[in-house]
Sequence to fold (91 residues):
Amino acid sequence: MHSKNKRPMTKAERAHVDRVRQLPCSVCGASGPSEAHEPVQGFWFISIALCADCHRGSVNGLHGQRVMWRVHKLDEWGALNITIRRLEEAA
Fold:
């Protein structure tokens, strides 16, 4: 969802987010396409690849109870590290 108060993505940001969305989920490993979680509004280059359940799920999701995150002993920094590693491996 795009906030009306947020500036539009640049061409470079859009290209990066499109690459992130092709990755598997950085928490559970579900195959892509994934959603791109933006930990800080407007900071698209630190987007994290998450499946819908690990992103928005009421039980497993980052915006829910984070069960899957706790099972895999991950926080946003750990998931970001996995996303960046996979982007480098795909390059």
The mean pLDDT is 91. Residues 76-90 form the longest helix (15 residues). The chain has one domain: 11-90. The longest strand covers residues 35-37.
